[in-house]
Each structure stands twice: as C-alpha cells, then as structure tokens.
Amino acid sequence: MIEPLRARTSAVVVECVDAPDDDTIAEWDALVATTHGTDVTQLSVWSRVRGTQRFRPLYVLARHQGVLVGGALVLTRRLRGIGCVGYVSYGPVTALESEARAEVIGALSRALADLRRMRMLFVQPPEGADDVSRALVARGFRPSAAGIAPAGSMRIDLAVDEAELRRMLSRRLRYWTGRWADRGVTVRQGDERDVPLLAELMYRAATARGYARPPHLGYLTTLFAELTRTDHAALFIGEVNGVPVSADLVTMCGDTVRGKLCGFDRDGDGRRLSVPAAARWEIIRWARRSGFRWIDFGGLAEATLRDAIGGGVRDDESWPSADRAKMAFGGAAFRYPPPVELIRPAPLRLAYDAARRSPLGRSLLTRARIALRSNGSTRSEARP
C-alpha cells in the first residue's frame, strides 16, 4: 500500500510504501549499510523483528534523479487511547552531500511531516545529522524530551593496533588483560543455543539491580535468529572455569558494532574477576579483526556526557556505574543530534504536555515510550 503522498522537488521524488518489492528492499538495505552513523534499526530485517510485537513498517524513500539516495524506516503501532504512533531510529538517512544532501533532507522532512496517519511521530536522527533535526523542526517538529532515545554515547576508534587499544584502557583494565586467562576467565562466541542463557543472565541482572524486566525469550530468539541470519548480530559469552556468567549481544551495521543487550550474574566470581569487562575487551579485539572501524557500547547519561565532552573527564565517581564501565575502555563520548517529535492534533499535543506534568501521566508516557523502544511488553532491559 502506498501512502497518498508524493513529495517532489526539482530533482527529488519521495514516496511512502508499506510493502516495497524485493528489489527496493535490497536497494534500501544497501543504502543503510553504506551510510555512516545509522544502525540495524533502519534495516528491513529490523521490521521483521519488531513485526512480532505488532509494529508495522512504513518506508519513506527518496530518489534523486531516479537513484535511491535517502529515506527512513518508520515503525508504527496503534496505542490504545492515542492512535497511530511512529518512531524513526537512527534516521532518516541520506547518501548525498552538499547541496544535493540538503535537497534530499528537505524532501524527506516534508514527507515525514505530511504523514497524516501519525498522531505522534518521534525521530532520532543518525550520528552527525544535526541538519536533519534542524530541517524537521523547520517543518513543524519540536525538540523532544520524551526519552525515546539516549542523548549520546561513546565510541572507540578501531583504526589503531591492539597495543594502542590496550593503552587506551583504564589502569585497572590494563592490569586485568594480563590476568584473565590465569584466573580461568574465557570469552567465547555464542550461537542460538545460548539465547536462553542470555535471557537468564539478563533476568538476573535486572533482578539484582531492580531494573525493569528484560525482553522475553521468544522475542530474543526471534531477534537473534533474524539478525544473525543476515550477519548483523553476534553473541559473546564470558565464563569462569567453563561456567557462563555474562552475555553480550552486539549488532553490526556498516562500519560500526554496537552493544545491544547484556546480562550478568553478579554472584560468585564473575564480578570479582570483572568478567563483563573481559567480554567487552574480546568484542573490541574481534571487531577490529573483523574489519569494523567503530565500536559503540551504548548510551550515556546526560551528566556523563556533560563531563566527558565539556570537561574532558575520563572517570568520575558520581557517574552511573554502567557509564564508568563503558568509559574505562578509553572511547570518546559524543552527542546524538537532538531528537524531535510531532504530535497532533493540537488537543492531543496539549493533553500530552499536561500529562508530562502529573505522576499518572508520566507513568502512561513511560509505558508508551517503552512500547516503542523495547520488546512490546510493559518493561524491558534493552540497551538504547
């Protein structure tokens, strides 16, 4: 089904398609895979993963002189009491630069603003695409404080040798890289048989720290099967003397590896021996050997970003422990472009703003946010 929408400029045509043909899907996936800063959440495979949780895809596709040069995968879902809600993660993407890029971004922004089926549309542009945020705001979107996406993250440049990567580690981690083997710590790459283990370790981590309930096993099984079938995910298991104590699922898109899901048994020797750090170190080494340029271990809190970017701080005891663990690997913190939102009609926008000022309203909005970002259950422990 094609939306009743065709946005045109002098050289750009945009169409919105619910079910593109196979050739178009192949074109789209190739574009995403070669565009820096985007993510698996813009690939067609992600629509199949999220389809198990009642999300439907809408492809907004831009062609410049007949060639597919940009677009966005919008995941949509009907929420009770609201209507159709959409979310664009790490998009829209565009392959062109300079004036042609501005033209494509302008056409895509116009098309997204004209999606009349959407009551709410949240957009997190990809890395480095601040011009996308500005273009969307010019089309009626506004900065979003909904928490749909993290404010920023950290990444490690893998274009150096392993010795330099080791020098970038904190003093404590440099010590452990020479001790893990002697202490019986090993890291192996997992397969589909380890997905129940990932689910169990995520549950243990959530229980120990009072986090939200992690995705259920059925969703994790689908996610792993779909992403590994297309070579977009890998699973790493950290063990102590052969006993699994940590699990990290990473995704791969283009030149970047990103942390997606993790679990850890905090009891026993796993914590004392820093097994999650051993797994991440092995992921770094594997990513470099596999030819990836960047590795991103997930979102950072606002306070961490402010200190790390503005003040050049490498570590601070006031940071969340998860942030300190990520920054110990020596990566550079960075901000994503500002997320934006479009909420209509005006009465719904007013109700949305009013809801954010009450405890009950904030609770309902949290449920809606999690429904968009997670596994479709009411709570999730997925990384941003």
Automatic annotation (TrEMBL):
InterPro entries: Acyl_CoA_acyltransferase (IPR016181), BioF2-like_GNAT_dom (IPR038740), FEMABX (IPR003447), PG_Glycine_Bridge_Synth (IPR050644). Residues 166-301 form the BioF2-like acetyltransferase domain. Keywords: Acyltransferase, Cell shape, Cell wall biogenesis/degradation, Peptidoglycan synthesis, Transferase. One of its GO terms (biological process) is regulation of cell shape. Pfam families: Acetyltransf_6. It comes from the Bacteria. GO terms for molecular function: aminoacyltransferase activity. Belongs to the FemABX family. This is GNAT family N-acetyltransferase.
